[in-house]
Amino acid sequence: MYDPYYYVFTSAEDTSIIRDIEKAVSGEYNAILCYAKLAEMAPNEEEQERILEIRQDEVRHYQIFSQIYTRLTGKKPTVTEEECPDCYKEGLDFAFKDEQNTVDFYQNIADRAKDLHVKQQFRRAAFDEQNHAVWFLYYMNKHCRHDKQHGVKEDD
Length: 156
Prior knowledge:
This is Rubrerythrin. With 156 residues, this protein is an all-alpha fold. It contains four helices and no strands. The chain is 76% helix and 0% strand. Helix 1 runs antiparallel to helix 3.
């Protein structure tokens, strides 16, 4: 059956962006899992709620990117599971760095995308990821200050 929304990619440029969109889907999937784990480790309700809000953004990104990938390729994306730290402070550091790297990655996809919908969705997601990074950095600094005030060594 002919699908009018299915677009056949032929150039290396098209193949590259498709691979990157699939990588974005996988990244969002892993963020969903990791942030659920991070929220469970959160030391207080405020941080837990904020991390769960961030996780909801990641669920939305995952759904949107999966739909884009399926629309562009005619098939469902494949995800690769990655490890998430077992310690809260390490998890915050991991999440902060991942969010920061993801901002640039999504901006790059948006810059290369020919489809206006794809451009808009990845630009919006990049904005969300930057906001998430700010929250994770805030919690990292908050816990670092707390540890210094209470004489806790970093390795503790």
